[in-house]
UniProtKB/TrEMBL annotation:
Gene3D superfamilies: TorD-like. InterPro entries: DMSO/NO3_reduct_chaperone, NO3_reductase_chaperone_NarJ, TorD-like_sf. SUPFAM superfamilies: TorD-like (SSF89155). The lineage of its organism: Bacteria, Bacillati, Actinomycetota, Actinomycetes, Kitasatosporales. It comes from Streptomyces fuscus. This is Nitrate reductase molybdenum cofactor assembly chaperone. Keywords: Nitrate assimilation. PANTHER family: NITRATE REDUCTASE MOLYBDENUM COFACTOR ASSEMBLY CHAPERONE, NITRATE REDUCTASE MOLYBDENUM COFACTOR ASSEMBLY CHAPERONE NARJ. The keyword DNA damage does not apply. The gene is narJ.
């Protein structure tokens, strides 16, 4: 597994709702992805209820911090439906069928896909949205910003010919 794959998988776990499984994985996440230590250290000393409430406050009330990548490019338009189909098509091209409860453009799902396949095309195609999310999380003052900092820093630069 390439070293960035570990980071992408760890970031995926950090960006999902912080349930009991997440708390149990914190020591492993801390060791496996030192780039995320600022966040994992914060999560380790924050009560489960406070961490969960903060996650909801940051990600669930407004699209301003949307974890759905196609939203950053398409907003709530009809065009977004085609973007979601594109995510599913890319998963299928790699022998994976998306069956999650979330939409296929949910950032933790895309990060897990990148970790499993080594394919970062969906992330690089949506780099502008990731950078906007990173900036907004930083401005909001949430520890989740450091997770986006690490993801954005690990992404390769866009290649010529990559669909945008």
């Amino acid at each position: 597994m390439p070293s960035d794959a570990v980071l992408y998988q760890a970031a995926a776990l950090c960006l999902t709702y912080p349930d009991d499984d997440f708390r149990a994985r914190l020591p492993l996440l801390r060791e496996a992805a030192p780039q995320l230590r600022e966040f994992t250290d914060h999560a380790a000393v924050t009560s489960p209820q406070e961490l969960a409430a903060h996650y909801v406050q940051v990600f669930d009330f407004k699209n301003r911090h949307s974890l759905y990548l196609s939203w950053w490019r398409d907003g709530d338009t009809r065009r977004r439906g085609m973007s979601l189909v594109r995510f599913k098509d890319v998963y299928r091209e790699h022998g994976l069928e998306f069956s999650g409860e979330e939409l296929p453009d949910f950032l933790p799902a895309v990060l897990e896909f990148a970790a499993r396949t080594g394919n970062t095309d969906l992330l690089t195609e949506h780099r502008d949205g990731l950078e906007q999310l990173r900036s907004r999380l930083t401005d909001f003052g949430t520890p989740y910003a450091c997770v986006l900092d690490a993801v954005c820093a690990a992404l390769p630069t866009a290649r010529a010919g990559v669909r945008r």
